[in-house]
Design a protein that fits this description.
With 234 residues, the chain is α/β, with parallel strands linked by helices. 41% of the residues lie in helices and 18% in strands. The chain has a seven-stranded mixed beta sheet. Helix 2 links the parallel strand 2 and strand 3. The longest helix has 18 residues. The radius of gyration is 17 Å and the shape is globular. The mean pLDDT is 94.
Length: 234
């Protein structure tokens, strides 16, 4: 069995080398599991592009670098499209979710029409980000009634064919807050979710969370995106 691990990446020079080393070294000891890293680099300016070229010499990598920003949503979608594994794991490259969360859930890999989603237990993000998520979850529950504890968690595993069933034009209606929209689209498509607790770690390097001044615009754009997903007919 092969799994593609999709990492959207923007300015993660300080994190990326350690992430790939740790994930690769531990996954190599998992029986009957082959893996590839799908690195969706997104217009980084801190040397990440050149670092990925060096890492390609050591690991099984699909390098999807771009000179300009495509945004998180398109990065995830591009990574899914390029993946060749039987299963795909989409997660973040900030090193807040560790490889152990994947290894511990191999026995929980989902069947067809089901996605495995984590919930951060506890969530170790800046307070402003946690408050925003708790407030936004009220709207998300009203629109989609997902019954998930953490519908924005960036730890999603599913069969490649199930990811590709999802209409890209609908997923793209969320320019930010992609996983909120992903859950909404899946529910419209009658997909199922299995939610499991995962360890979440404080970000040690790089920029964490949103600036307060950015939150009103982010909330508004995400609100509009969710409404569009909710009212669009499939």
């Amino acid at each position: 069995m092969k799994i593609s691990i999709v990492f959207p990446i923007h300015n993660e020079f300080e994190n990326l080398q350690n992430i790939l080393k740790e994930w690769n070294n531990k996954l190599e000891f998992v029986n009957n599991l082959e893996h590839e890293f799908v690195l969706v680099e997104d217009g980084s300016t801190d040397g990440t592009k050149n670092l990925i070229k060096d890492l390609e010499k050591e690991y099984k990598i699909k390098n999807l670098s771009l000179e300009t920003r495509r945004g998180y949503t398109k990065a995830v979608i591009d990574g899914i499209e390029a993946s060749e594994g039987d299963y795909i794991l989409c997660t973040d490259s900030d090193n807040q979710i560790k490889v152990e969360s994947l290894i511990e859930n191999i026995k929980n890999f989902p069947e067809e029409n089901t996605f495995l989603i984590g919930f951060r237990n506890p969530r170790r993000d800046p307070l402003n980000r946690i408050i925003y998520s708790k407030l936004f979850k009220i709207l998300h529950d009203f629109l989609f009634n997902s019954k998930l504890k953490d519908p924005s968690c960036p730890f999603i595993i599913g069969k490649k064919n199930d990811f590709r069933k999802l209409p890209k034009d609908l997923l793209k209606k969320m320019s930010e807050g992609f996983w909120w929209g992903f859950v909404g689209v899946c529910l419209k498509m009658k997909m199922n979710f299995k939610e499991v607790p995962i360890n979440h770690f404080k970000r040690e390097k790089g920029i964490a969370g949103y600036k307060i001044i950015e939150l009103p615009g982010i909330i508004l754009r995400n609100f509009i995106g969710l409404i569009k997903i909710r009212i669009t007919k499939i």
